[in-house]
Design brief:
Elements: H1 8-12, H2 14-22, H3 29-38, H4 42-56, H5 58-71, H6 76-90
Length: about 120
């Protein structure tokens, strides 16, 4: 029987680094190494970092990651706070993701006559 190997992202956290490299970013192996040493869920941290990368974009994320490395931090929450700080510094809008269920239809709503309420 062949041993079951964990998925690559859970095994080393390199999925985020590879994804960031494809987007011409350096996530910073030092942050991933710190996550690995901390012993908590590496998969959760990597998934959260990818979400922040998608939400804030390459420039804000790279600046925030460099800020964390310079300050000796590695917490994903600190990365989120740094992303938000750098977003504000650049004067960008708040990033929002709106996920609607598949059963919702994107139809125009035609308002009815409101004069019947004027009594």
């Amino acid at each position: 029987m062949r041993p079951v190997r964990p998925p690559p992202m859970a095994r080393s956290g390199r999925g985020a680094v590879d994804r960031a490299a494809r987007r011409d970013l350096e996530l910073g192996d030092r942050i991933v190494e710190r996550w690995d040493v901390a012993g908590s869920s590496l998969g959760y941290r990597v998934a959260r970092a990818i979400m922040l990368l998608d939400l804030y974009g390459d420039q804000v994320f790279a600046t925030a990651a460099a800020d964390l490395i310079a300050r000796g931090l590695s917490d994903v929450g600190a990365l989120a706070v740094a992303c938000e700080k750098h977003r504000k510094d650049l004067g960008r809008l708040v990033p929002l993701t709106l996920v609607l269920p598949d059963h919702l239809d994107d139809a125009d709503v035609i308002p009815h006559d409101l004069e019947s309420y004027d009594e």
